[in-house]
Amino acid sequence: MEQQINILVVEDDNDINQLLCKIIRKSNYDAQPAYSGTEALIYLEKQKWDLVLLDLMLPGMTGEEILEEITAKGSMPVIIISAKSEQQTKINSLRSGADDFISKPFDVEEVSARIDSLLRRYKHTSESPMRNQLTHKDIMVDLEAKTVYANGKKLTLTVREYAILVLLMKSPKKVFSKSNLFESVWNEPFLGHDNTVNVHMSNLRNKLSKANPNEDYIETIWGMGYRIKS
């Protein structure tokens, strides 16, 4: 019997929260509504969630503060659903640890598809490995525990950042184009104009650089893409 998927829905608007819970339950997942940042924090401390849908404008604590709490705990997938649709807000959310960003008003089918895509990616990265560890220079990835160490320091990566790093490390000689990375990690067609890969790659590089400023782990092959630097 498959384990039940539990999703926390943090949204202060009752109608939107109920709609999101309905979308989730239609896909046979469990939905837990939370109507404030403070309430969300209680649920987050109580158990680990398979996914969090998070509004940014919340009473009690802001969505940004909740996101900070989530990323401090490790790799828990987060989709931001917000009326704050400015590009900078989206980039800041992705840099801060969110895995996806959906602007309001949203399309019901798109929300459902993005939830499925992220859960599938998370499940894939946690279950697919044939070997238990990947190593490169001073990076060590434990594929069972989904932990990453660089220069002896534990890194807190988002689900997407972890998936990108694992993909690069599994094929160290391969150059991955933005299209390769997006379609492998997001399980969606790459439309060409999306800045999402750049943001996640930049975030991943920054975290690796903080662990070891003297080492360069990922190289950009101009006009082609990215690969692990030998």
UniProtKB/TrEMBL annotation:
PROSITE patterns per record: OMPR_PHOB (PS51755), RESPONSE_REGULATORY (PS50110)
Keywords, ordered alphabetically: DNA-binding, Phosphoprotein, Transcription, Transcription regulation, Two-component regulatory system
CDD domains: trans_reg_C
Domain OmpR/PhoB-type: 131-230
SUPFAM superfamilies in UniProt: CheY-like
Residue list for modification 4-aspartylphosphate: D55
Gene3D superfamilies: 3.40.50.2300, Winged helix-like DNA-binding domain superfamily/Winged helix DNA-binding domain
PANTHER family according to UniProt: REGULATOR OF RPOS (PTHR48111), RESPONSE REGULATOR SAER (PTHR48111:SF2)
DNA-binding region(s), chain positions: 131-230
Naturally occurring in which organism (per UniProt): Bacillus seohaeanensis
Protein name (database record): Response regulator transcription factor
Domain of life: Bacteria
Pfam families attached to this UniProt entry: Response_reg, Trans_reg_C
Alphabetized SMART domains for the sequence: REC, Trans_reg_C
The Response regulatory domain, residue ranges: 6-119
